[in-house]
TrEMBL record:
Protein name: DUF309 domain-containing protein
Species name: Halosolutus amylolyticus
Highest taxon listed in the record's lineage: Archaea
Length: 204
């Protein structure tokens, strides 16, 4: 939960308002309806969607999402799961009554664990989650990213701490201007690793 939560928060804080929910949605769909965790993620998904629609001038959509987002977050502690929920609830109330606020000021950042995390602040697992989300959002094939994540996890499990796949996942997430180049390098390394594995399999 913590890694998915933090990945989505960082994606949102870096301005990918529409994509943030993809870090949470699969996990949220598996939760029992009405639990605190389910309400939290549902509310965050509604919040990020409300921000996205307000910035896209879809006023009716933004208002509807803001109202439902407030309902889901209502009653949760202000620091539930180390999130700063009061500013989010206040922002949802503002969007619900004045969605055009999106044209006058930037969206509020989300605070988690006492800071405002961005993509540059994430650890290995939240970065791997963010890489898959950003690949989908930005039109990259997700398969090489998924495989790089698997290889990075294997390397870490084997005791390595210098995996090229970890480095490339970090770079893919953090390097906006060079993301395409990083993706090409990552894909090349994934292809070579797969070829070596197939060669080994062929020996047995």
């Amino acid at each position: 939960m913590r890694d998915r939560l933090r990945a989505g928060v960082a994606i949102y804080n870096d301005g990918y308002y529409h994509a943030a929910h993809d870090a949470w949605e699969d996990y949220w769909l598996d939760l029992e309806s009405g639990t605190d965790d389910e309400r939290l993620l549902h509310g965050l998904i509604q919040f990020t969607a409300a921000v996205y629609h307000a910035r896209d001038r879809n006023w009716a959509g933004a208002v509807g999402l803001a109202n439902s987002g407030r309902d889901y977050l209502d009653g949760l502690p202000a620091d539930y799961r180390d999130l700063g929920l009061d500013p989010i609830r206040l922002a949802l109330g503002t969007i619900a009554t004045d969605p055009e606020v999106a044209e006058r000021r930037p969206p509020i950042p989300i605070e988690h664990e006492g800071t405002v995390p961005t993509l540059a602040d994430l650890g290995v697992e939240p970065t791997a989650i963010a890489a898959i989300v950003l690949a989908e959002e930005l039109g990259f094939d997700e398969d090489p990213i998924e495989r790089a994540r698997t290889y990075a996890e294997r390397d870490l499990t084997a005791g390595g701490d210098d995996s090229r796949f970890i480095t490339l996942l970090f770079d893919f997430v953090r390097e906006d201007e060079h993301r395409g180049l990083v993706y090409q390098r990552l894909t090349g390394h994934v292809d070579r690793r797969r070829s070596r594995e197939k060669d080994v399999e062929g020996l047995f």
